[in-house]
Specification:
Elements: H1 2-59, H2 66-81, H3 87-108, H4 112-116, H5 118-153, H6 157-164, H7 177-180
């Protein structure tokens, strides 16, 4: 009789340890996605801080297209307002900002003096570097969300996730068509 009791207690202890291990793995995966999102936020803030300097540099050139500058400023303001509203809303706003910046840089091609300006070139290089960091951060975030979502959807962790209220993470997806397009390179 005592042996049967020890076997039952052993099975219960093993099951509890398994549940604790699965739960801790879910918490670790969720925290990894939060950390990955924080890395994106840092880079997006950096981009938001660079844009006013870029706009001011471009404004110095008379006859520069005012609508393009206003579109960049408005897109930046919308992107800043989207912070904290959710991954999908923020990704959409950031995609629109990327599109406005692409249009600005395309229009700059019509102003050779501006293209040669040292301040503009430095800002453009800094912006390009920041865009690359955002891209890497977005990739890391999406990989983290994929791992987290796999954990909450696969057996046996899906049982623990369902009991403890873990919800699927949202991917940072490109929604703006301009951002999905492959850049065109011209050597004219």
């Amino acid at each position: 009789m005592k042996i049967a009791l020890y076997v039952v207690l052993g099975v219960v202890v093993v099951l509890l340890l398994l549940l604790v291990g699965v739960y801790n793995g879910l918490v670790r995966a969720r925290n990894q996605t939060k950390n990955a999102w924080a890395q994106i936020d840092v880079q997006l803030k950096r981009r938001h801080d660079l844009i006013p300097n870029l706009v001011e540099t471009v404004k110095g050139y008379k006859n520069f297209e005012r609508e393009t500058l206003e579109a960049v400023t408005n897109a930046r303001n919308l992107a800043q307002k989207a912070v904290g509203t959710g991954v999908g809303a923020q990704a959409k706003a950031e995609g629109e900002l990327s599109g406005a910046l692409s249009r600005l840089l395309a229009v700059v091609e019509n102003y050779p003096d501006l293209k040669a300006n040292k301040n503009f070139l430095a800002l453009q290089e800094e912006l390009t570097s920041t865009e690359n960091k955002i891209s890497f951060s977005r990739q890391y975030y999406n990989d983290s969300v994929l791992g987290y979502n796999n954990k909450i959807q696969m057996f046996p962790s899906n049982v623990v996730a369902g009991m403890t209220g873990f919800k699927a993470g949202e991917f940072f997806q490109v929604t703006v068509a301009e951002e999905k397009e492959v850049p065109k390179v011209s050597f004219n």
